[in-house]
Write a structure and sequence with these properties.
Number of helices: 2
Strand content: 35-45%
Helix content: 10-25%
Low-confidence stretches: 5-16
Radius of gyration: 17 Å
Largest sheet: 4 strands, mixed
Strand order of the largest sheet: 2-7-6-4
Structural class: alpha+beta
Distance between the termini: 60 Å
Mean pLDDT: 88
């Protein structure tokens, strides 16, 4: 009986300490697509958008995607380098559609995010896609 309780407690603690994650991004990682109008992100649990940052930016020539993601997150939402439009609402959401500026040129783009996990830890990540 004691082992069973210990197991249940361990499972409960591990899920309580789990960080929020982006579970899906559209366009998918490394997909080659026609210029999209939006990027969709899905989260493992609803997040508070007002404490989160999302940017889509062209990856500069010779820059690694991870470095481009960090550069994108450092840009202001209305920067000319950013191709995603600023969020129109700041609410609780389990998924998010980021509208993009029209006329994306051919190249590689990075989708970068920094979200605040329910346990208070920031979670950053990125995905890339190519426009033909």
């Amino acid at each position: 009986m004691n082992k069973r309780i210990a197991l249940l407690l361990a499972l409960g603690l591990s899920s309580a300490l789990a960080h929020t994650a982006v579970t899906a991004v559209t366009p998918a990682m490394n997909a080659t697509v026609a210029p999209p109008r939006r990027v969709q992100l899905r989260f493992s649990e609803p997040i508070e958008l007002r404490f989160s940052t999302f940017r889509v930016m062209a990856v500069p020539a010779g820059m690694a995607p991870q470095a481009a993601a960090a550069a994108a997150l450092a840009e202001k939402a209305d920067s000319a380098k950013v191709v995603s439009l600023p969020l129109e609402r700041a609410a609780l959401a389990a998924q998010l559609g980021l509208s993009l500026k029209p006329g994306l040129k051919a190249g590689t783009y990075v989708v970068a995010w920094k979200i605040l996990s329910e346990d208070g830890h920031p979670v950053t990540g990125f995905s890339t896609f190519k426009v033909q």
